[in-house]
Each structure stands twice: as C-alpha cells, then as structure tokens.
Amino acid sequence: MDVEHKDHLLAAARRVLGVAVLLLCLLAELLVFAFRRHAALHLVPASAMLLLWRFNRRAAAAAADVGLVDFSCLRPPRRLRIPIPGLLEHLRLIGCFDDGSVEFMSRVIEECGMGDETYFPPSLHYIPPSATHADAVAEARGMYLPTLDALFARTGVPPSAVGALVVNCSGFCPAPSLAALIAGHYRMRADVRTFNLSGMGCAAGVVGVDVARGVLSAHAAVRYALVVSAEIVTVGWYSGRDRCKLLLNCFFRTGCAAALLTSTSAISVPPNCKYRLVTLARTNRTADDRSYASAVREEDGEGITGFSIGRGLGGVARDLLRAHLLALGPAILPWQEKLRYAAALLLFRRGQRKFKKLQDDGNGNTDGPKPNFLTAASHFCLPSSGKPMIRRLAEGLGLGEREAEAALMTFHRFGNQSAASLWYQLAYHEATGRVRRGDRVWQLGMGSGPKANSVVWERISGDPEPAATDNGPWGDCMDRFPVGES
C-alpha cells in the first residue's frame, strides 16, 4: 500500500470517527435531558467533544505545514481584447460555422454574463484561426513568462530557489513538456522536481497545490514549490457544428496564474508568507460511467475534435458536489455548526417520518437542513462557469450575492480561465480590501473526470495595503466593480 493510499484511508477514518463522536455526543445530551439524570453527566459528551477537537487540531497542525508566499495573475495586453460585438462578427466571418451554430453561440455568450474585456490568444484573432502547434507554444510562452516574472519580482524569491515546479494545462501536452519550457527559460537548478499535469480540467489547480504540498512535506531540502495554472485556448478551439462542443468557444478565455508555496514545518512561518494551508480535499466519481462520460474530449461526426459537455452534466455535478461536501464539511466546519447541523438533521428525520406529507415540496422531494458554510470561510472562490451556473452553485451552498461576487465578476471581466480562475477570484477579494488577517478563503474547483477539489487558506500576514493590488489583474479596472445587471 503506497503512502498516498494510506493517507486517504487515515483521512477517511478520521472523518468517520468525527461523525460518530458527534452523533454519540448529541445522543448522550438528549438522553441526559430526557431522563433528567445528574448534571455531572453533561461532562461526558463535553469531554468527548474536547478530545475530538484536540485530535482534529493536532491532525490539522500536521497537515498545515504549507504556506502561500504570494501569487500572480496575468493581465493580458489590451491588443488581445475581444469585445462581444467583435466576437460575434468574428464568428460569422470565420467561415466554418453555419448560421445555426453562430446563432447558438451568440445566444449563449449574450446570456452567460460575460463582458467586453475578455481576451483571446493571438492565434484566434486571425481569420481563419491559426491553431497550429507553434501557435500553442507561443501562447504558452506569452502567458507563463510575464506571470512568473511578476511573481519572482513581487516575492524576491529567485527561480534558482524553486525546488519543485508543477504545471497544469488540460488540453495541451507538448514534448518537451510545459514544465520543461519554464525550467529551461529560467535556468532552474538541475535537481528541480518538475511535474506536468494534463487532462485534469478546471479543478487542476488544487491538484497542483496537493502535489506541491506532497513534495514540500517529503523533501526537507525543497523550500519553495511553484504551481502554474493556465489553459491553452488555441488547441481548445472547436470549428465544427456540434452544439455540445461549441460551449467551450463561448466560455474559455486567456488567463494564467502562478502561486509560490513554501514549507513552514522546519522553520517558523516566513515573514513574507501571506496564507497558510488549512485543509485540502479531493473527490472524484471517475468509477461511475455516466459521470465519466458527462464531459469528454472526442471527435464529432465530421472528425473534428472538441470537448463535449453532456446534457446530464448538471445532475452529475450535483451528486459530485454532495459527495465532496460530505468529505470536506467535517474538516472545515466549526464544532458548533457540526452540532447544530446534527441536531437539525435528527429532528428533520424524525419529523419526516411523522409528517411526510407536510414535508413534501410538491415534486416528491424533501429539503433537509444544510450546513451553514458561511461559518467555515469568509471568502469564496467558485467555478467560473457562467452566471447561471455560478448562482445555482452559490444557492446550493447557501451563499448570497456577496459571496458569489468574486466568481461573477471574474467571469464578467476575464471569462472562464479554467484552473487559473480561482486565483483571479482571490486577487479580486484582495483588491476589494476585504481579506483581513485571520480570514479563511475557500477555493472550490470542479473539472472533468469528474472531480471536485477544495483548498482552504487562512490569511496570516497583515491586512493588505490598497496600493499592493495596483499591479494585479484588477489594478486598471477595480473602480468599476462590481458591475450591476446588464
């Protein structure tokens, strides 16, 4: 049994133990109250809760030995901007789409909440688009290098200090790899550990953080790990007529983010470290055939390759998120909220049995209590999959307009940038000045596979200065956000 499998089993055992102790404590309290036993018996569940809290704190301390020094997001040059009216005209002039396909994409783009300042790579500004291998490599260089230059300048950490490099890009996997492209350009040291992740979808950024965390934990000599997230839109462009594959043309845009992580176990927390890693969770439903086939890259009837989004993706995403929250909730919810939710769930189940007709919502379904995830984090970064999907996801998590603001505004300003979108949202939170010391930020990514991954950060550095965000992706436009309904 490998180490990673053992870690997953131990984490699952901790979650089962936590839920069991919570239920036993609640049951003990109910028995004491119902039979009016001696008041000292209240100490039994209270003591068990204290032991569970100390156990979880110790486990969290063992896992939270990773800090986020800083991150950087690309603000593409304005010459690559693609306003919606120009994009719609571009789609008509390309020549590969029929009238029905152009009308379909136009309707999706106009209704999804995207603004006029998103970006395409240079290759897609041509008529017809130039989607060659050389164009894709040029796009990668044009995104990676400015983003990393800004990160190295901001942190003061030279490329030679990086001991691990993790690059994630779903659709483009050249040889030499994208990780080799970066390591070669910056002349990184000969023993740098490089990882190139492909096909992992919009949740790949959290996977990259997990890989970096593993390297930092396993190798004491590695002090800094670099995680780079981007999607090469050139190779993702679809020029056919299958509407299930045309959606990516509507949503995906140019963007890149890089995060510098460090180990905080062997040394005290570095003074320049902005966040500490609180917890990280990964869930997948790859073993289910229906889920696996809900989003897949394949050829259409004319032999043109594109990424298909199945009609049943909504139900798959709902089931995946439910499974993910069951795994993540015990790790991020405070004990008071766990007790409240457990009590509400017991009362609901009891009432459901007695008053099933009253609980029915008219569709044969019943709405049970939900955990209050506002107690788990102060700021949220959600999948940037268009305004309707963002709002539906936020509603399912019990979040309001303010909590969904970063995702909505990031999609409006930059479109869907795959795994990099979560970092643009964190940059938005920082640009608003809302992230204060001690606040927790929850980044939730969902991608093909399908998989749902989460990472929770806690701000440990001082409150950000307004001038600190001037050079970020929102520096030239933050005074115009948030925007209202169009």
Task: Give a structural overview.
The chain has 486 residues and is α/β, with parallel strands linked by helices. A nine-stranded mixed sheet has the order 3-2-4-5-1-6-11-10-9, with helices on both faces. It has a two-stranded antiparallel sheet with strand order 7-8. The chain is built from 16 helices and eleven strands. The chain has helices at residues 3-35, 43-63, 84-94, 99-111, 133-155, 178-185, 204-218, 233-236, 243-251, 289-292, 313-332, 335-354, 356-359, 387-396, 401-414, 421-432, and strands at 66-73, 162-168, 193-197, 224-230, 256-263, 275-284, 295-299, 305-309, 379-381, 440-447, 451-459. 45% of the residues lie in helices and 15% in strands. The model is unreliable at 1-8, 58-64 and 361-365 (pLDDT under 50). Helix 1 (3-35) runs antiparallel to helix 2 (43-63), helix 3 runs antiparallel to helix 4 and helix 14 (387-396) runs antiparallel to helix 15 (401-414). The N and C termini lie far apart (55 Å).
Beta-strand share of residues: 15-25%
Mean pLDDT value? 85
**Tally of helical runs:** 16
SSE pattern: HHEHHHEHEHEHHEEHEEHHHEHHHEE
- In the predicted model, the low-confidence regions spanning at least 5 consecutive residues are 1-8, 58-64, 361-365
Terminal-residue CA separation: 55 Å
Give the structural class.
alpha/beta
Q: Assign an overall shape.
A: globular
What's the oligomerization state? single chain
The total strand number stands at: 11
**Major sheet size, sense and barrel closure:** 9 strands, mixed
Output the strand order for the largest sheet. Answer: 3-2-4-5-1-6-11-10-9
Helix content: 40-55%
Gyration radius from CA atoms, angstroms: 24 Å
